[in-house]
């Protein structure tokens, strides 16, 4: 099983879209035989304030847009791009945000048509 810990530093695997957020989240990616599982912290954001997009080449984009930009908690908009090392099935990608600000994304691998 592959396990990658990706920190907020700019690297080939992730990039910040807007100004640096106070969240400084950690993203963990684990690979199983048929999918990637992505775990991220998005504290302070509601389910409808988090968006996850994916494309077949293995790019996962996680964005957070607080409804109230001038909130007293200092939560700022962010965008993170995670480049997964294999082709994926974006139509089967699913994401869940818990009440405690934990994001779980299941990203199935693309099945080869043989």
Outline:
This protein has 114 residues and is an all-beta fold. It contains no helices and eight strands.
How would you explain this protein's 3D organization?
It is elongated and about 50 Å long. It has one domain: Immunoglobulin-like. By secondary structure, it is mainly β. The chain has strands spanning 2-6, 27-31, 35-41, 50-55, 59-64, 78-83, 94-97, 102-108. It is 0% helix and 40% strand. The two termini are 25 Å apart. The strands form two sheets. A five-stranded antiparallel beta sheet has the order 1-2-3-8-7, with no helix packed on it. The chain has a three-stranded antiparallel beta sheet with strand order 4-5-6, with no helix packed on it. Strand 7 (94-97) and strand 8 (102-108) form a beta hairpin. The protein has no helices and eight strands. Residues 18-114 form the SHSP domain. It holds the Pfam family HSP20.
* Helical residue percent band: under 10%
Q: In percent terms, what proportion of residues is strand?
A: 35-45%
Structural class: mainly beta
Overall strand count: 8
Helices and strands, in order, run as EEEEEEEE
Tally of discrete structural domains: 1
**Whole-number radius of gyration?**
14 Å
If classified by CATH, what would the architecture be? Sandwich
Classified by CATH, the class is: Mainly Beta
Using the alpha-carbon principal axes, give the shape.
elongated
Count, helices = 0
Which stretches are poorly predicted, pLDDT < 50 over at least 5 residues?
A: 1-24
The residue-averaged pLDDT reads 80
Spatial strand order of the main sheet = 1-2-3-8-7
Instruction: Give the N-terminus to C-terminus distance in angstroms.
Output: 25 Å
